């Protein structure tokens, strides 16, 4: 058997270390800037690809990403697995019952939010294929169908992330957007699989993609529809019958995990064999498996974490390797794609929401939410590029569209819907707000000692802050019991909450209900008109630090990072637990 | 860039579906037979490999596993990632503080249990290299060092699994064996990395393994030791400083997950580059990261599940593809390897335990525990085969050794240490022991209705069973409250507990403390002399079914599989949570 030489192995492993490391670092950075991680991951790829590294350090670029030999095949194998698993996850998140439960407005938004951009894209591409970057010689109908699909698809994971960031995930608007996005994705992928079959039938022989001989276009489309219907009816039924047996008889959650992956690989091989792409089979398996209550939270979580944090970054970074994003950047084309994509999607969704009798502000928020495109747009573009339907310029324009819509959707939704912000303890505590050894021995001393840094952080006068907190303390003691006290005050002139934490090793009497002295003293300042902030934050403190183990971590620590890590990991469910519909 | 053709993709995806599906099915089957999953996974590989499929269906075998082209390279890339991740997991499980805490006996067992088999293997191989299957032309010293290492190494994951199965994991004997096995693994891999450097320096040029030009043997050994010392001191310190920062500032658990994998790929590339194998770097990263309290249970769990249930089976099945296990089966060599391996390991460990003043039965149990070899033995043998140090016959003998010791260690330990068996609800309930609609309306009727199938399962007389349970019920009612009752009896002539569950939709009065009628009625028969079984099982029922949600699942279900799935997934921690030391 042919295999990788030791030198190939060194390059491949170093390549994955660099790709994953840079992608995740950039993803985390963009997360901290309030942006979806995918934006950072793709930019990391552009840095590593021909655009930057290939131009400025061609030697290193050529070493890491050789054009020939075994290494590119090894990369291709793993990136293919990554995108197959990414589509499995995308499919798992689709639960059409969410859509049915939202009623008439959701259906209108789904249908119009998919059909209008499709019609706009199809019409524009059909009327002026050269302008929109058709690959010379490619079939115009195929190209127009592709472009329509590309404009109508959404990006469920990006949308889910935005909903969570805006604290909208479980609201009516949030569920509406999620349901409609699921519909768009499902229809989009089915149409696109047919487009793939057409691409395949029309591909020039030298492209060496698809074309497994015998199958004509009609057979491919027939088989595709057959597989879709099977997966969503009998296949889904059989999976739902098999899962309880697997859960009860095999190891857990390993049984369900392996079963899902075996089905995924088999489905992917099948759809690849009939001439539509492997990812389509993976997506359908995800849809068939996903809405089963028997795929418990833990199984989803393991898959989700591994794919989100390992495979997806490697795939997104590889996007940047596909093209030179400066050389192939066609300003006119990019602006044209952005304009038509925004207009088509916003108009379709707004129309649906308006017909569904939603208030204007909600309708706009929904339209901007549905306008987010991320991974799905890019995968579509990548396949069209590889199948020789579009030129590199169009691919670049689609990547820009995906990035820009992912960036603007959140802020635009926030403009139209105001939600009380959710304050997280670990975001409030930072360097300079944790004092592992308080000097104070009395309640007033402790409050004064903590008021100084709090006032500095708030930009207020130190003694005024201390007085406000002491006044509040005189009304009623803030000792919560279990060695915790939360002296606090609501103040004018404060923009956001300020929290300072002190540890008093000897304990300070805070007149707690359990009679014990307080050792953890949180001084909390909140804006006067934001009542919910104070309740939220005090609730979190009370919940978290009732555990002696959690308090012990703070007592033994002199770094705010350890405290933040504790809060984050103990504060209950991980964000992704919530992100998964039905999870 | 070169890439996989659609046909390559179909083969690769189908290949993974078949490999993973067959490996996991066989692994689960062997688990049910009380054997480690690895035994089934390797046998699945032998079925799929040249031994069986290649002989009986050479066409299909050639299609799935072509000898040339891009597909074998794609397999190689993913199998290499699999073994790199497997060694990461193995490293993560090593926590030497477990060893120090066990004191003198543990140290004696560790040192002698490693040194004696090493000396025996080294001496035998050095004295008669031809008998032990040296590859003609290979360096005798290298070969002898390899054989010594192969006999001294253990298999932590297999041992951990056996300890759990025997309910010994948290006992003194269990911790002793785990600690000593960690020591053996750590020393074994360090010695083996040096042997790899020697293999590399001595490899014939046509083998095309290792040999990155410049580095001589001295430099390789020096660098290896330098990397080991760095990883276990400064590297470990830096990782432990970085982790709280990562946990508190980056997404969780994704931050730690990606960080660990980036380090793993980088470490693997480094050790591969200096001429020892990539897996060694992955192992060291695992050791450096693993004993940090900041790698929380969830991060470990995600990695563990994905590797155990996806990557590891693919790797183990690939073992079977490496050789023809019938053609290369040399009876004399296999028996010789088994004899020398058993004698060396058992003698060394028994001697250590005896010097450590442990009771004889414990000493034997520990020796047989340490004798288990699984994945590690096989990986060692595979590398030696690829580096041209041993012949295929010796590789086959080592695989047989790994399988046989994995199979016999559990039963042998059980012979020497009797532990009360742990009964699990989901193992007791089976087809024929769940009655979704009881006819009974009174307590006595319900007991009689359930006594019939229970007596049949126990092989006892029906009316005698019913009488015993009714007599017990007269002494004191067995209604637990919250709609649950557990009528029960201890009986002579019963070998193991029998449990039958009936659902009474209308409810039956069982004189429960909360005054509510019972809807779930468990009839439990246990052997008269096994008091712990009754307490264990009743405790599990009471704990699990106090939740109204859990009861609702049973009320709505008419399949025992749904009930078993509920019990398994709700019964608290997954087995692997316990399997991880420090987890």
Most extensive interface: A-B, 87 and 87 residues
* Rough outline of chain A: elongated
* N- and C-termini, Cα separation of chain A: 43 Å
Number of helices of chain A: 25
Oligomer: homodimer
Q: Within the CATH hierarchy, at the fold level, what is the topology of the largest domain in chain A?
A: Na+/H+ antiporter like fold
Name the CATH architecture of the largest domain in chain A: Up-down Bundle
Fraction of residues in H or I helices of chain A: 55-70%
Mean pLDDT of chain A: 85
Largest sheet of chain A: 6 strands, mixed
- Give unreliable regions of chain A as ranges: 206-214, 572-583
Number of strands of chain A: 6
By secondary-structure content and strand pairing, the structural class of chain A works out as mainly alpha
The rounded Rg of chain A comes to 27 Å
Describe, in plain words, how this protein is organized in 3D.
The structure is a homodimer of 583-residue chains. By secondary structure, chain A is mainly alpha-helical. Chain A folds into 2 domains: 6-416, Na+/H+ antiporter like fold; 425-579, Mannitol-specific EII, Chain A (3-Layer(aba) Sandwich). The first copy, chain A, contains 25 helices and 6 strands. The first copy, chain A, has helices spanning 6-32, 37-48, 53-56, 58-64, 70-92, 96-102, 104-127, 140-152, 156-165, 172-202, 217-249, 254-273, 278-290, 297-321, 331-355, 360-370, 375-386, 392-416, 425-428, 443-458, 462-475, 531-544, 548-555, 560-570, 575-579, and strands spanning 434-435, 479-481, 484-485, 488-491, 498-508, 518-527. In chain A, strands 1, 2, 3, 4, 5 and 6 form a 6-stranded mixed sheet that branches. In chain A, a hairpin with a 2-residue loop joins strand 2 (479-481) and strand 3. The longest helix of chain A is centred in the middle third of the chain and has 33 residues, at 217-249. Chain A is elongated and about 85 Å long. At the A-B interface, helix 1, helix 5, helix 11, helix 12 and helix 14 of A face helix 1, helix 5, helix 11, helix 12 and helix 14 of B.
């Amino acid at each position: 058997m042919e295999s990788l030489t030791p030198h190939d192995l060194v390059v491949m492993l170093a390549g994955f270390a660099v790709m994953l490391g840079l992608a995740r670092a950039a993803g985390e950075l963009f997360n901290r800037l309030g942006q979806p991680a995918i934006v950072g991951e793709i930019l990391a790829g552009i840095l590593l690809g021909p655009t930057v590294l290939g131009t400025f350090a061609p030697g290193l670029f050529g070493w890491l990403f050789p054009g020939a030999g075994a290494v590119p095949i090894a990369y291709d194998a793993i990136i293919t697995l990554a995108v197959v698993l990414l589509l499995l996850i995308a499919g798992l998140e689709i639960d059409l019952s969410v859509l049915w439960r939202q009623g008439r407005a959701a259906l209108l938004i789904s249908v119009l939010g998919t059909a209008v951009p499709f019609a706009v894209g199809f019409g524009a591409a059909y009327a002026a294929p050269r302008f929109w970057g058709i690959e010379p010689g490619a079939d115009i109908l195929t190209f127009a169908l592709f472009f329509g699909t590309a404009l109508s698809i959404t990006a469920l994971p990006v949308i889910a992330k935005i909903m969570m960031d805006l604290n909208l995930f479980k609201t009516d608007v949030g569920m509406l957007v999620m349901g409609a996005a699921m519909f768009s994705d499902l229809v989009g992928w089915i149409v696109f699989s047919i487009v793939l079959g057409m691409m395949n039938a029309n591909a020039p022989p030298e492209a060496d993609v698809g074309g497994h001989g015998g199958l004509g276009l009609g057979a491919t489309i027939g088989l595709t529809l057959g597989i879709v219907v099977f997966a969503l009816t009998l296949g889904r039924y059989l999976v739902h019958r098999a899962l309880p047996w697997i859960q009860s008889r095999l190891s857990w959650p390993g049984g369900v995990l392996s079963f899902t992956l075996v089905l995924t690989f088999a489905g992917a091989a099948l759809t690849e064999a009939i001439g539509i792409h492997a990812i389509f089979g993976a997506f359908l398996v995800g849809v068939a498996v996903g809405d089963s209550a028997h795929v418990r939270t833990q199984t989803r979580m393991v898959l989700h974490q591994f794919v989100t944090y390992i495979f997806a970054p490697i795939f997104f970074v590889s996007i940047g390797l596909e093209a030179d994003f400066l050389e192939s950047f066609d300003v006119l084309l990019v602006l044209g794609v952005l304009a038509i994509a925004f207009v088509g999607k916003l108009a379709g969704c707004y129309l649906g929401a308006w017909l569904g009798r939603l208030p204007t502000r909600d309708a706009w928020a929904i339209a901007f939410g549905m306008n987010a495109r991320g991974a799905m747009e890019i995968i579509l573009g990548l396949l069209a590029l590889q199948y020789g339907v579009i030129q590199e310029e169009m691919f670049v324009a689609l990547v820009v569209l995906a990035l820009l819509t992912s960036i603007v959707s959140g802020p635009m939704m926030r403009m139209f819907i105001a939600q009380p912000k959710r304050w997280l303890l670990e975001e409030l505590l930072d360097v300079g707000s944790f004092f592992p050894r308080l000097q104070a021995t009395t309640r007033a001393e402790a409050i004064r000692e903590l008021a100084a840094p709090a006032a500095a952080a708030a930009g207020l006068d130190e003694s005024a802050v201390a007085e406000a907190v002491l006044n509040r303390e005189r009304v009623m003691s803030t000792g919560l019991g279990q060695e915790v006290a939360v002296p606090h005050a609501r103040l004018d002139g404060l923009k956001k909450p300020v929290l300072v934490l002190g540890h008093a090793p000897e304990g300070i009497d805070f007149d707690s209900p359990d009679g014990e002295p307080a050792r953890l003293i949180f001084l909390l300042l909140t804006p006067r008109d934001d009542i919910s902030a104070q309740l939220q934050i005090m609730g979190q403190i009370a919940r978290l630090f009732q555990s002696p183990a959690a308090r012990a971590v703070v007592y033994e620590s002199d770094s705010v990072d350890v405290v933040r890590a504790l809060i984050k990991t103990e504060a209950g469910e991980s964000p992704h637990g919530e992100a998964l519909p039905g999870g």
